[in-house]
Every structure is written in C-alpha cells, then in structure tokens.
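Technical note accompanying the year-one report. For the benefit of new consortium partners, we illustrate the data format agreed upon in the data management plan: each record pairs a sequence with a structure-token string. No post-processing was applied to the example shown here.
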Amino acid sequence: VGFVNGRLLCENVLLASELVNDFHNPGLITRGCLQIDITKAYDNVHWSFLLNILEALKLPSAFISWIRLCISSPHYSVALNGELVGFFPGRKGLRQGDPISSSLFVLAMD
C-alpha cells in the first residue's frame, strides 16, 4: 500500500491495530492474524513473470519492450582481493532506488 498513489503505509498499521485490539476478549468469534515479511522483495521479482503481467494487461508491445530494457540491463561483478573479476548479467530482480521499481513491484504483488 505504501507505493500506491493516494494510499499511505500507515493505513496497514492502523487496520492491524483495529483488528487485534479485541483479540483476547471472550465471546468474540474466532479470529486469526497473518504477518508476511517479504525478505529481499525487489530481488525476488522474476522478469518473465513481470513481463507476462504486462502482456496480460494488454499494454502496448513498445511499452513492454521499454520496460524489458529497463529491468534486464544490469550486470554484476565480484570483487576478489579488491579487484573486479568478470561481469555477469542479472536474471531477476528490480533495482533499488529506480523510480519505476516500486510500481512494477506493486504489479507483481497484485
């Protein structure tokens, strides 16, 4: 919710507080609560999955191609004894700090 225009992250906190406020009161119906922590959320978005979502939304192919170029261009390197050794392409994940990453993540999670 934190990345959706017009919504605030604190809305989830307020909703959760309301839901668990009377959790232990006798006579209420049985309730449950689930908390999901998405570890390294951006790192785990598969590009093919995201591109399939964009196609399912029937977005123009040129737009999908632009997104493909944006998300699939990173290359990584390993530092060994202070020296960069080789470069290899990324296979999944969205870049932290990229303005479009939050919107793409919301699409993937939805």
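Partners are asked to follow this layout when depositing records. The helical segments are 10-20, 47-56, 61-71, 101-109.
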